[in-house]
Structures
1.
Amino acid sequence: MIQADQLAIAELKEQGRSGADLMEAAGLSVTREILKNCSGNKALILCGPGNNGGDGFVIARHLQDASWKVTVALLGSLESLQGDAYYMAKLWNGEILPLNEARITDQDVIIDAIFGTGLSKELSGKVRETVDKVNLTNSLKVAVDIPSGIKGDTGEILGSAIKADFTVTFCRMKPAHILFPSKKYCGQIIVTDIGISDRIVQQVEPGLFINSPECWIDKMPDFELDSHKYNKGHAVVISGDLTQTGACRLAAMAALRSGAGLVSVSSPENALMAHASHLTSVMIRRRENLVTDLKDHRLNTWCIGPAAGLTKQTRNDVLSILESGKNTVLDADALTVFEDDPRVLFEAIKAISGRQCVLTPHAGEFARIFPYLKKLDKITAALSAATLSGAVIIYKGADTVVASPEGQVIISNDAPATLATAGSGDVLSGIVTGLMAQNMNAFDAACASVWLHGQCANEYGRGLISEDMEKLIPAVLKALDHKFSG
């Protein structure tokens, strides 16, 4: 966005205008949202020393023109302001008070224009005291671009941050609007148009995207008139022993519902009867035939990990599957069994170029196999993990990040809290497996699966359990087909 701002300002200058016009548009857009969403007529505007503060002065002027009673408090002196921010401050026809906690009094609205997205150091001193006091008030809190105290590109809380009721940002959302923990501080997010064209956005070549069907819908498997089960892929899910069979069935049924032509469960001898009593449309294979099955070119995509067991057998099976060159989805136990030496896993993944592989760790599993990355922000961590492992990473959570070794990144923005239920991740692994079995590439399959998984949960609402989810997949796929048909 910094680059996009600079390009937009350059265009304005070619037209005989200046960056102040962009700042005016930004402040005016926030003012409109305040007038639309806020009752009352008393506002305190907290301005910082940069362009965010300049936006605040624009807002102050327009609210005053709308007959509001406006108080402005500035961090630092007027003389320390530079460029467009100084210009806008000089246009303000009112008193400018020093910013400190004493300014935080009963207001209808408190507008946070202290720091924007460029903040990189922790809040301290009077700024932090002011922010903490703002959060204790009952006033409606509006953040300009991003709540002060948040690192815009990572979502990190820098000591303390404004807890906004809504945030008005410009042109596009920023990573911190979507990532946790910062997402909880942003409240409702409103994106306004301030004159930065889509052409400029494309020119800066953005690398982060919100996960939506537009990102991958043209890669979804098609239903051709001559389709049959044998050309829609055959997925295999590895089962744990008798006491751990449910997870693999969840994954297997999700793979089948996602469109795989055939799905099998590869079962140890002691679990055969358990699976036989539960499965009808999913086939059962004997684990003792694993080596032979891996040589069968028709069994094209394998999933291992859901309740597979933290055993030497699981570790060996993962390595055997990878050595075979099959498309592979690794989840849960299939990751944790390599905690002591994850390099063995990564080397096995990279040993065969072109093989499609997806890892689906939650935060705990991620920390086990990528211990040196766990303290990084989620986007950097996921990208680094994808490069290190040679696999597509689904870094699960309320803000799931999908990253590829080639540097693609997509962030989930619509997963509900109801997904926090046992077996939910097994269903996700199954959806990925089912789509990959139909020859969807790993990154697109991962992104589509995360979205479908979230939509199933949104469709059901409260009370969702993992057994419900695979039954919801057809309705979500039908709605998707209807929206994008033709």
2.
Amino acid sequence: MTNTASTTGARAHARSQAAAAATTEPVLPDGVEAARITFAQRIPGAGYANILLGRGTRIRLRDPAGAACAHLLLLRADAPWERLNVADTVKVPWQAYLGNGHPLLSDQGRILATVLADTSGKHDALCGPTAEARQLLRLAGAKHGLEPRDIGPTVSFFRGVRVATDGALTATGSAAAGASIDLLVHLPVILLVANAAHPLDDRAATELDVVAWAAPEELTATHNRDPEYQRAVQNTETAWAAARTLEVGK
């Protein structure tokens, strides 16, 4: 292990870390022009990322080796007190299991992101993060001036959970290597993600790919025809229009 007690040792360690990162680039989506990609990173197990994403961004989380676990929290970038509300994300759509067309909602009834595509089907909106994941999310949030109290419940991707008939929560494992899930961002958000074990599945997390690109045209498509979703879209668009009006008036 490199000795980081001296400046020379710390520099050598930092450069070795950068060299290792350069050899593990994420898989980029087919058919997306390089100029549209705004973020691309491979996150190691026990790693984290903090990403500022604009409205109309499409983000792909991918599980290259089949054992990643992405604990994800979204906070509205221009009003970070408005953040992912996992209870409403489950309650409002009448669905506890995340999949295509599922909104990730704030407690204001607005859509922070929508699930657009899912080849995994192994996700969880019931258990929340482990202590390790919560600590990683706190580190990620600190980069945006967030405090530990700002880190609330999360959703987890790539480790499945189902509810048994007796109410018990049961882990259902991971999908095959290479599974992915795409989200469309409806309002500017800070995305915090920790790649760590799940409360019901203590396997060490393997690498996680995160790639984001501009896709504003997706906002005009209908991703879910349920009345609850459509009402949330209306709430979101009204809030966005108001925010733009205030910005122009400054």
